Amino acid sequence: MKYIIAVIQPDRLDDVLQKLEEKEIHLVTVSSVMGRGRQKGIPAVYRSHKEAGSLLKKTKLEIAVNDDYVNHAVDAIIGGAQTGEIGDGKIFIIDLDECIRIRTQETGNLAIG
To answer: What is the count of structural domains for the chain?
Structure first.
């Protein structure tokens, strides 16, 4: 099992969710976050709007998947988020030791679904 964290541009969220649906990955947690990367928070005109200050608006997706779905999830995120411009985002993949579905108390791969 793996835990995938992706930080993407907010305007790419719908495309990423669509690509994940196409790969039959439905369980996603989405958060609005602030951060900076190579832009270092330098104020600039970016994708037709001016960003000021040291942090930029980003969207974070968190997805728990069984090992068989890791490449599918990564391909879907890249397919929906990639524009070729700086700031497209990052994907982090972390080993997931355990997962427990609260309702049924199922564990492991069964709990992820």
So the answer is: 1
